[in-house]
Amino acid sequence: MSNYFLNDEQPWTELGDGIRRKVVAHTPQLMSVLVQFDQGAVGTPHAHDVHDQIAFVVRGSFECEVGGAKRVLKPGDAFIAPHGTMHGVVALEPQSTLLDQFSPRRDDYL
Fold it and tell me: Quick one: 49 exposed, middle or buried, by C-beta within 10 A (0-12, 13-18, 19+)?
């Protein structure tokens, strides 16, 4: 694994339903992932059994729901979803992008 992530050299992985991701970097304890959404694409509400997550808005905007509370987030905003907490998003603009941080690493993304 390289110690550098060069965005232009990494392709998006299409997940379907207007969502794609790029793994930026990872160690066994930490993972960073870019997730891009088409306008109206839905990150279906879910909870993680073991992974804590911080999602930082890089571009666009999202209607987010975390633990039953809804907020609209824009670039520079973030939400925290500790493991066991229901969370989901709806992209409000084209190419809305999150930088997701997971601890520990999401091995299912590799």
Answer: exposed
